[in-house]
C-alpha cells in the first residue's frame, strides 16, 4: 500500500466555508466556573428557539431568539457562548431522541435561506443539542448521565463510575482526486439524478488524514493516490462531522467501483466541472450545492493553475 | 474575532509520523460480510497478544502474535485486517474497563522500543480495543451493546432502540505559532521539568480546523493568529485522538497565559529550538520526543526557509 506523505499548498483565496464563521465567543472559562455560569443563566438570557433540532423561523426569516424564561423547565440548557456580550443558550427538549428525525430536504428547506453567520451558529448548536439527546446514558456502565460544564460534558451519575463524556466530532476526509487534469467524482444512490460529488469517508482509529484519503479512494474506486494535500475543513452538523477537504493525485485511471458505496464514479474534465459549477444545462453532471465543502473544493480546484 | 482562512503549503519532505504507516489492509468489505468474517475467524487466525491494553512483549522484543485458539472464550474479537494475507485480530478482555489504567511512563517503557510499523499497528488496535472496553452500553438508552461488523461497530441490543455506535476518533489541533521568527511553546504542569511543547486542543462542534487553532491560541495564550496552515496529522492512541498539526502566525507578542491550562508559555528563538532538537544541554528547553507530532512539527519548522 502506498503511504502518502503529509503535504499541502498555499490556498491563495479564502473559501467561503458554510457552517463556519459563527460570531460567538465560546467563553471556555465560563463552562468550568459554576458560579459564573449560574450568574449568566438568568431568565433574561438569550435562548435560541428550536423545535427539536430545527430552528423556529419567524415570518421575517433568520433565527429566532427568546429568553430562558420561556424554556421548558424539564429541558437541559446548553451554554453556546457570549454574543455581543450576551449569554446564549439552547435547550435540549425532553424526549428529543425519541422524536422522528425531520427528513433532510425539509431541514434544508428550513435553514437554506439563513445568512451564513446564522447557519454557523445554528449548526454548532444543533450538533451539541443532538449529542445531548443521543447520549443520555453512560457508555461505560449504562447509568444515566447528567449535563455538566454548561453542556460541554456529560457525567455519569453512578457513584462507582463517574465517567465523563464529551461532545463527539467525527473527522471525515473528502477528496478531489485528479489524474492528468481530470477529476474523479462519484455518486451515491441517494443523490439527486445526475449529481456527482467528491469521494468521502470517516477517518478510522490508527490512521492519518492522508492515510484515510488513500484508503477511501482505494476502497471506493480501486485506485492508489499520492501527494495528498489538505485544502480546507468544514463542520457538518448532520450529525457531527468535521469534513477535512483534500486533494490527491491518482496513480492510475482504471476504476473499480465499490457498488455498496457508489452507484457510479467517473473522470470529468476541467471543462465539464466548469460548466457544472456555472449551472450550464449542457454540463454532464450536477455538482453539490455551495454549502457543501465539495462545492468549495471544486471552486478551489478550478482556481488552481 | 479574526476568522483565519484555510491554507497550507507544500511540505517538501516526508515527516516520520509515529503511530502511522501500519502495514495492514483494513479490508473494509470483510467487516460487513458475516460469512467472510466467520471464515477468517478460525482458531489458527492471528491474535495480537495484549495484556489489557498493553502489548505482551517477548524477550526478543517486538509485538507478539498468537492464534485465536488461545483467546479467552469470553473475550470479544476485533478484526484488525489482513496482514500478508492473514487475518489479524485483537481481543477485548472481559472486565477490561474495570482494570486500573497502566501509568503512561510504564506504557512508554513497554512500547517505546517497538519498530515504527509495529507501533502503528499496535496503536490502531489499542484505540479500538479501548473503545470497546469503554462503550459496553448504549449512550442513547442505557441497554447493553454487542460488537458488530468485526469490531468496527457496536449495536444496541434493546429491540426498541437498536442504535448503532462507531469507534470514536477525536480531532485535536496542535499548532506552532510563530511571531517574527520566534516560536510560541507552552508547558503543562504534568510535563517533565524544562519541557515545552506546541499548544493543543480539541476541535469543538461547529468550528473548522483553522477556527479551532485560533480559538485555542486565544484561550491559552491570549493572542490572535492568522494564516493557519495544515502541516501533518497523527493518530494518537491515548485514548483516541487525531492530532492535526498546524502552523499559524501570531498578530502580537504579548502573552496572557491561561493558568488553568498552562504553567508557562514563552517565545523561543529558532536557535533555541535548534539546540533543543539537537539535545544540546545548553538549550533553554527540552522538546517532546520524536514519537509526538509536536517534535516532527519542530523539525519541519526548522527545515522551512
Strand and helix layout:
Two copies of one chain form a homodimer.
Chain A: E1 7-8, H1 28-31, H2 34-40, E2 46-48, E3 50-51, E4 54-55, E5 65-67, E6 76-83, E7 86-92, H3 104-111, H4 116-134, E8 145-148, E9 153-156, E10 164-165, E11 170-179, E12 182-187, E13 199-202, H5 209-221, E14 225-236, E15 241-250, E16 264-268, H6 270-277, H7 293-303
Parallel strand pairs in A: 1-14, 2-7, 11-15
Antiparallel strand pairs in A: 2-5, 3-4, 6-7, 8-9, 9-10, 11-12, 11-13, 12-16, 14-15
Helix pairs in contact in A: 6-7
Cofactor (chains A, B): Zn(2+); Mg(2+)
Catalytic activity (chains A, B): a 5'-end NAD(+)-phospho-ribonucleoside in mRNA + H2O = a 5'-end phospho-adenosine-phospho-ribonucleoside in mRNA + beta-nicotinamide D-ribonucleotide + 2 H(+)
Protein name (chains A, B): NAD(+) diphosphatase
Amino acid at each position: 500500500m502506498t503511504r502518502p506523505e503529509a503535504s499541502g499548498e498555499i490556498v491563495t483565496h479564502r473559501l467561503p466555508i458554510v457552517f463556519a464563521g459563527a460570531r460567538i465567543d465560546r467563553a471556555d472559562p465560563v463552562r468550568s466556573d459554576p458560579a459564573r455560569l449560574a450568574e449568566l443563566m438568568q431568565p433574561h438570557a438569550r435562548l435560541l428557539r428550536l423545535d427539536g433540532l430545527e430552528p423556529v423561523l419567524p415570518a421575517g426569516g433568520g433565527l429566532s431568539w427568546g429568553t430562558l424564561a420561556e424554556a421548558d423547565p424539564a429541558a437541559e440548557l446548553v451554554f453556546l457562548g457570549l454574543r455581543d456580550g450576551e449569554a446564549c443558550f439552547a435547550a435540549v427538549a425532553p424526549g428529543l431522541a425519541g422524536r422522528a428525525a425531520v427528513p433532510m430536504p425539509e431541514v434544508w428547506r428550513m435553514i437554506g435561506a439563513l445568512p451564513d453567520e446564522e447557519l454557523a451558529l445554528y449548526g454548532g448548536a444543533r450538533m451539541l443539542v443532538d449529542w445531548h439527546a443521543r447520549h443520555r446514558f453512560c457508555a461505560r456502565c449504562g447509568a444515566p448521565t447528567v449535563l455538566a460544564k454548561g453542556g460541554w460534558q456529560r457525567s455519569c451519575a453512578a457513584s462507582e463510575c463517574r465517567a465523563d463524556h464529551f461532545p463527539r466530532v467525527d473527522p471525515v476526509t473528502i477528496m478531489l482526486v485528479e489524474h492528468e487534469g481530470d477529476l474523479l467524482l462519484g455518486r451515491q444512490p441517494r443523490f439527486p439524478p445526475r449529481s456527482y460529488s467528491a469521494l468521502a469517508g470517516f477517518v478510522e482509529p490508527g490512521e492519518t488524514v492522508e492515510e484515510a484519503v488513500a484508503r477511501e479512494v482505494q476502497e471506493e474506486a480501486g485506485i492508489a493516490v499520492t501527494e495528498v494535500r489538505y485544502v480546507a475543513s468544514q463542520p457538518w452538523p448532520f450529525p457531527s462531522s468535521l469534513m477535512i477537504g483534500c486533494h490527491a493525485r491518482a496513480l492510475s485511471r482504471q476504476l473499480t467501483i465499490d457498488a455498496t458505496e457508489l452507484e457510479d464514479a467517473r473522470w470529468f474534465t476541467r471543462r465539464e466541472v466548469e460548466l457544472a459549477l456555472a449551472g450550464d444545462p449542457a454540463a454532464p453532471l450536477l455538482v453539490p450545492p455551495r454549502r457543501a465543502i465539495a462545492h468549495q473544493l471544486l471552486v478551489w480546484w478550478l482556481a488552481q493553475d
